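To fix ideas, we now present one chain and its tokenised fold:
***
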Amino acid sequence: QVQPVESGGGLVQPGGSLRLSCTASGSALSIYSVGWYRQAPGKQRELVAVSTYNDRINYADFVKGRFTISRDNSKSTVYLQMNSLKPEDTGVYYCNANHYQNSNLNYWGQGTQVTVSS
């Protein structure tokens, strides 16, 4: 059992930057893959980036070159550095922790709002 908690969202102008944090307490983060997802109003949730339990990284095409996902297992935290933000990046960003060998152990945070607007 883990409880992911997101933070770092806010209002930023186009071209600006934000860093999101996901802290997952309860179990060792090293045995969980962690993904960042986002959902805009009226749209489906979409995958943004994933850091697997063994620190393999994948990005959605629309954020490559702009976003960076990283983890610090000693702090039980995964980060999403977001640069060159666009209005279409606006949405609620969610952190998901998935056990590396038990897909039934899958947990979501409450989300943090990111708004990119001038």
User: Anything to note?
Assistant: The mean pLDDT is 95. The first strand starts at residue 3 and ends at 7. The chain has no helices and eleven strands.
